[in-house]
Write a structure and sequence with these properties.
alpha/beta, TIM Barrel, six-stranded parallel β-sheet, two-stranded antiparallel sheet
Length: 266
């Protein structure tokens, strides 16, 4: 058995992370990881769609940075990936991105519940005051379900992201995420067990124990991610994530190479 791979990490190209890929790789080795994956925020067809992702002109630079780190750290398995926003109507753009490089996996994430509002953007936190919490959660999981059904992604990222700033889901919200987990199981998507939530207002791993337990019962596999935006966040709180996953029944995590999945015990 080994520590699971950290498959959710960023680079300065997203404009809200620090540290070059070599620094992340060095930190991974220091804490005993044998595999990592860079999955920075993908560009949109329109540059400056928001202020927390690379522009399209930087995509090749991103790939070159990761390839250079792969060469500099041959003792560490390093995967090339992207975190890609799922917004209805952008599917063709995602397919274009997929065809540009030999990616190892795509993380599909829902940040936007409308064309202009990213629910986790601290600069737009006040928007929550104008929104019905249940509707935000409903739209988020509706889009997560469509993301899973699209078969454009290997991993679905931080599924219950709306809780980031402490906006807890409404009572009896199982009906919101059960269709999503059914879609993930049917399409073969894995679930990102993401420790970044412990560093946010919600102080809880994404997804919650309730969601993860149901995911295990439905046979949805998992990956692990720190969502690192700085080298010292690589692998952060993995002990807690492993404990959570084991506590609901998981014994294996997924690895990806050229978008093909294998399972390994942790």
């Amino acid at each position: 058995m080994s520590l699971p791979a950290d498959y959710h990490m960023h680079t300065p190209l997203c404009r809200h992370a620090v540290g070059e890929p070599d620094e992340y790789a060095r930190r991974a080795l220091e804490i005993g990881l044998t595999e990592i994956g860079f999955s920075d925020h993908s560009p949109m067809r329109q540059d400056n769609f928001d202020n927390w992702r690379m522009n399209f002109s930087q995509l090749d630079e991103y790939v070159e940075k990761v390839r250079r780190t792969q060469k500099n750290f041959p003792q560490l398995t390093i995967r090339l990936a992207l975190e890609v926003d799922f917004i209805p109507g952008h599917e063709d753009w995602i397919r274009e991105l997929a065809a540009r490089h030999p990616w190892d996996y795509f993380i599909g994430s829902v940040h936007y519940v409308s064309d202009s509002w990213a629910i986790d953007d601290p600069q737009k936190l006040s928007e929550w005051k104008n929104r019905d919490s249940f509707e935000v959660w409903r739209i988020c999981f509706e889009r997560l379900t469509k993301a899973a059904e699209s078969k454009l992604f290997e991993i679905i990222g931080h599924a219950d992201l709306p809780k980031k700033f402490g906006h807890k889901p409404p009572d009896n919200y199982t009906k919101l995420f059960e269709p999503f987990l059914d879609a993930a199981k049917k399409s073969g998507c894995t679930l990102d067990v993401n420790t970044a939530g412990l560093r946010k207002d919600c102080k809880e791993i994404y997804p919650s124990r309730e969601i993860l337990k149901l995911a295990f019962e439905k046979g949805v596999p998992i990956t692990f991610g720190s969502d690192a935006h700085a080298p010292d966040e690589v692998g952060m709180n993995f002990a807690e994530a492993i404990q959570l996953a084991r506590g609901v029944g998981y014994k294996e995590f997924c690895r990806f190479e050229k978008r093909q999945r294998t399972l390994e015990k942790f």
